[in-house]
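hiii so my PI (J.) wants the whole complex modelled not just the main chain, which honestly fair. so below is everything: two entries, each one labled with what it is. i double checked the lines twice but i was tired so who knows lol
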Amino acid sequence: MLACELNPWQISLGSLVVCSAPEIYIKMAGIASTVYNVICRRSSTFALAIIAGTFVFERTFDTISNQIFDSYNKGKQWKDIKHKYEKE
Amino acid sequence: MAASLGRVCGSGLLKASNGALFNQVSTFSTARDWAKGRKTLLACLGVATGGAGALVYALESSVKAEGVELHAPNYAWDFYGHLSSFDHASLRRGWEVYKNVCSSCHSLKYVAFRELIGVTHTEAEVKEMAAEYEIKDGPNDQGEYYMRPGKPSDYVPSPYPNEEAARAANNGAYPPDLTYIVNARHNGENYIFSLLTGYCDPPAGVVLMDGQYYNPYFPGGAIGMAQVIYDEVLDFEDGTPATASQVAKDVVSFLTWASNPEFDTRKRWFIKAVGIFTLLLTVTYYMKRHRWSTIKSRKIVFAPKK
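here's the output for the full assembly
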């Protein structure tokens, strides 16, 4: 039998009781809290982090995708055969 | 009590019952009060109409063998596949074929020499190649047109000054510009490959006019272009044996590039697009789960008043 005194996370809708799970807070520790404190607390550092992050992400992402393409098409592309036609 | 009830029935009580829905919908029907005879008659009519339609369709498609031209098979091109680039050695040979064979009749007027740089030739080679052509330029400060050696920025010169001249030289048939021909024909690369290699003797009863040749892949069969590709029709500079199919494959690869010069870049971007969208999808999915977690983990129970 459910008790009728409502707990703080329960909402009464007449005879229906809606129980929400209490919110769970994850305690940040170590790196996460350092990152939060150093970067996210100030808009200037946060914006800077976004710009730098974009740059780093873009460079790595492009390099990886280009490497996939180049190794898949090894020997077929112009850069693979041009040494045969370039005169010094 | 409510808890134990919930345990016995599971969430079945909360689910919408489709059976009830169905009953409800069937009361919407206007055919409910019809007499049995009327219903039967209408059902028979419906079946008869459907059957007649199916019969007509079957008869129609059984005689679909109309037309005498062949449809080109699909070949295993090395640039097929989501990630495959062109084979640039093949493109280079294809340019050789265009230049030595096709260019006496077909123009390639939307390709500039400079576009070959980094695709089939080096810059030095392209400069040399362009300079072999005489290009009409002008007017100069006397108001006259003059000829000068070609530059990489020039477009590939056409064999005929205009369409009329081209027709006059080819029995009235117009050799189309080849730049976008691959995109301009159904199943472009396969069709052109089959066309180039598919010449044969006309079957009995097919009469060809002067200057016409029989090609089963060409709509109508009678084409104004003679067979131009044979074994050893040219020597490739890189020593590849010039069999007819090799020559045709290379020139068609080259023409596919001419029609789709962005091809390799597109393939490269395909990888990037798949990568980015996979990341975005993962993030979106995570966010969705995260947002819904509070709603999904709450519970509604029935608690009767004492």
